[in-house]
Amino acid sequence: MSGILILFIAIVAFTIAYRTYGKFLSNKFGVDDNNSTPSHENRDNVDYIPSRRPILFGHHFASIAGVGPIVGPVLAVVFGWLPVYLWIIAGSIFIGGVHDYSSMMASLRHKGKTIGAILEIYMGLAGKRFFIFFTWSTLILVIAVFGIIIADTFVNIPSAGTSSLLFILIAVLFGLLFYKYKLPLWLSTIGGVLLLIAAVYLGQSFPLHLSKEIWMVILFVYIFIASVTPVWILLQPRDYLNSFFLYAILFGGIIGVVFANPNIQTPLFTEFSVPKLGFLFPALFVTVACGAISGFHSIVASGTTSKQLNKESDAKFIGYGGMLLEGLLAVLAMLSVATMGGKEFLDLLTSEGPVSAFSTGIANFAIHIPLLNISFEIAQSVVALGVAAFALTTLDTSTRLARYLFQEYFSSRNGESKSLLSSNRYIGTAVTLFFASILTFSGKTMNIWPVFGSANQLLAALALLAITVWLGSTKQKYLFSFIPMVFMFIVTLSALGMIFYNNIIPTPNITLAVISFLLFSLAVLLAYEAYKILFKKNRSSKI
């Protein structure tokens, strides 16, 4: 089957969905630009600051995308391309898009608070603390693992380390020029992108050779600074500029597909069970997270993005539109390996991993673009560097989000607590990175990584639960969030049940068994509390 046709169908489906289902969701939420947003009401120029839509879209998209929509579809192609394709399309439109957009709108209507703080209003202090502790713990694992992955990348590709450090300096310069010295956005963007290109060249010319341990220390110092620095100085401009790498990879890949006109080599469907991943259900829906739905998105949408939205109508473009664009990236990632021969793909996946397989696939497309005139080696290197930049985005965004959650855990219901733990951003960041560094340098981080996929999707189910409870408690219709919530609970409970079984009977692993059991129990407990609110205490709410 033609890769162009598969890509075309995805683009058409996402375009129609944005104009129709996106409008449907906006109507459900009663989006009104006359409503004041938290960025204006709580403006502090550190976390809360009204931002231009293109800049905030770049920040949000780079934060939610990372390497997730690349790695998941590449790994899941072993089931065959059709199940992956259908899940990406349907998931992005009806589940992931709803999850991201709704999380953002829920936060907007609750003074920029995260999903955990919103849970407290409708499910009490215990619900809030369960959710926040679970989410905070998950983010610590993300920080630890991505710290290792990025350090390994910089050791193996020293030029990426040099370029990434230069990217940080360029981002600070962009923030100062645009926000402090009021340079026009178009001029700041052109200058920033040109400097990024120069940084890539300098990275190739002056690779930085450091040990893995030194890189991890540098990364932890950097993310501490990034998470407490005002968003306009570093985090937002860096993500905005890095998003141009992602746009280049995305649209360069699409144009490359058009000129290369590749045919799908991977079977339509292989089998219901594959080694290491397990059964098609629930493994497919846990493996392909970003690109269809990811719980991490709800924390970004309600944690950083909602605090920077200038007006309510921007939420559809950034929240729903950002998820659909990520879905398109996931389709491209699937095509990058599905158009390879089966042996070539499996050899790459086994020997070099999913990121290398993706980089190879996109490079194979890019070399067919006539005017680009780029070699395979350069194309592959640029794609790999872009992926490393997005992993770094995930790392510092996760740290800032973990700090928000730490502060909210100790804050009062009305957010006016004067507790030092809830008001001091340095303490929350230091405690978060203390535990993440212990996990990182322990050498045992990857032992519990297998449960992360299920934990991430459980986070999505809990976010949808919070949104549904909010809508139900305020007498609004909630069927559009209720159905995705039920589906994600079925997926995650099934996945956690299988992890528990596989680590008790065939090959005992007490740590994974205990974690999966605790997560399963948490999900059931919160689901039962939501059931009581929606169907016992609130029978008059509209579905």
Q: Which key features would you list for this structure?
A:
globular; two-stranded antiparallel sheet; mainly alpha; 543 residues; 21 helices; 2 domains
What does this structure look like?
The chain is an all-alpha fold. It has 2 domains: 3-61 and 112-447, no CATH class; 448-543. It is built from 21 helices and 2 strands. The chain has helices at residues 3-29, 38-41, 53-65, 68-76, 81-108, 115-156, 158-180, 185-205, 212-228, 235-260, 280-287, 295-303, 314-338, 342-351, 354-366, 376-409, 420-423, 425-442, 452-473, 479-502, 510-535, and strands at 273-274, 278-279. A two-stranded antiparallel ribbon has the order 1-2. Strand 1 and strand 2 form a beta hairpin. Helix 10 packs antiparallel against helix 16 and helix 14 crosses helix 15 (354-366). It is globular and about 60 Å long. The two termini are 41 Å apart. The mean pLDDT is 87.
Low-confidence residue ranges: none
Estimated share of beta-strand residues? under 5%
Main sheet strand line-up: 1-2
Question: What is Rg?
Answer: 22 Å
Overall, the morphology is globular
Q: What is the first-to-last residue Cα distance?
A: 41 Å
Helicity range: over 70%
H/I helix tally: 21
Name the structural class. mainly alpha
Biggest sheet overview = 2 strands, antiparallel
What is the N-to-C succession of helices and strands?
HHHHHHHHHHEEHHHHHHHHHHH
How many distinct domains?
Answer: 2
By DSSP, the count of extended strands is 2
Mean pLDDT: 87
Task: Please render the helix and strand layout as text.
Blueprint: H1 3-29, H2 38-41, H3 53-65, H4 68-76, H5 81-108, H6 115-156, H7 158-180, H8 185-205, H9 212-228, H10 235-260, E1 273-274, E2 278-279, H11 280-287, H12 295-303, H13 314-338, H14 342-351, H15 354-366, H16 376-409, H17 420-423, H18 425-442, H19 452-473, H20 479-502, H21 510-535
Antiparallel strand pairs: 1-2
